[in-house]
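Hi R.,

Here's the chain you asked about this morning:
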Amino acid sequence: MATNTATPPSVEIIDVTPTLAQTWLYRNPNNRNLRKGMVDAYARDMLAGRWLLNGESVKIDDTGHLLDGQHRLSAVIAADVTVPMIVIKGLPAGVMATVDAGTKRSYADALKLQGEDNSPTLAAVTRRAAMWVRGVRTNTGSLRPTPLEMNIFINENPRIRTSAEIASKLASRSLLPASVIGLCHWLFSDLDPDDAEWFLARAADGDGLSADDPIAALRNRIVKMRVGGGRVNETDALALAIYAWNAHRADERRSKLQLPKGGLTPENFPEPR
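And here is the predicted structure, written out as tokens:
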């Protein structure tokens, strides 16, 4: 019987310094393009002391080339900290095609495993709310919270679960995306919890609205966005919902809602009142 004389890979936990991270990255000539947003997110967790040894590993093949860990190592350099990582050395070079080939677990998946209800909606609403408190109003850009940051946000803001539950119930009959409904509930209920729920329910079903009611104007504007199967822009929908809410709270009549000329910016984005 033939005997396998190949040296098996080694596995160890190593305190990875910025210098060591740079050395391994130098041996990474053909990896994917670096995603700065991911590096920044990892670096924030490292700087805050939230980085966890979660079983994910840095992988190095038997020729010394880095196979996996580019973003984590880049974050060590960006944060200028030392963190422990599981490091596997001596993998066959041919395994590269199988690295990260599986389905990536989403934050919604993680919330479900943590026992949270309405996990897809809770994940979406938490992300938007965590971005909002940082001053990020649009649904784009690289400043997106990490799963650890979002877990902390939920623990510090437990009523976000109520907002996600209401969004889940209303989403099936609402013109607005669930993430927008949930974020609006979370923002509006700071001002008036009962009115927030009433406003979003009317925006969903349209019952008893007059033609010049700002909620009717919101519904009409969202319908126009959806004409021809179009997708609702979440940033625009959020701004329009806030405009309608502010008009509703001020008892103003509106037959139309307009976005700012030239588009929404952090400076002209509406704030709930």
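One quick note: The first strand starts at residue 10 and ends at 16.

Cheers,
M.
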